[in-house]
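User: Structure with succinic acid, tokens only please.
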Amino acid sequence: MSAWIFGYGSLVWRPDFPYVERRIAAIDGWARRFWQGSTDHRGVPGDPGRVVTLVRENGARCWGRAYRIEGGDGEAILERLAHREKGGYDRIVLDLHFAAPGAPARGFVYFANPRNPNWLGPAPLADIARQVRRSHGPSGANVEYVLELAGALREMEVEDAHVFALADLVKGEGAP
Ligand code: SIN
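Assistant:
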């Protein structure tokens, strides 16, 4: 098999599976938001952390990383990802637009829809930052998730005002 997987959260900075190619890519009409609760990675049941999902927004563009997987390992990788993303994410297929010139491709994307049991939804950014600062789970501190994602996006030289503002607040640098 040959398939693209698009990551916009932890899959940007910790893909944790073998791939044959990695490209900066974007999906159009979607915005990245820290609106999904995490009880299995960056929080625990009853005290969830906050991780990203996608919400539809006209004119929005969400940058991330696309990975091409190939060969007999493909099914095993998708199974592993289904387990990793089991805390409320569905696998959907979207158009990926690459930063480098070339035709778009279809790719798998893990998307937490508002009907999943871990959905938290919008909140003032300062409240999200407080929740992130106090949350820890089996994969580590929620703060690490935010700062690693912000760092990777900066390294890719792409914009995400929501992520960067949250990272500043989490570091104690943003306006409250
Ligand atoms: C993703 O990274 O694409 C999905 C959300 C996550 O695992 O953080």
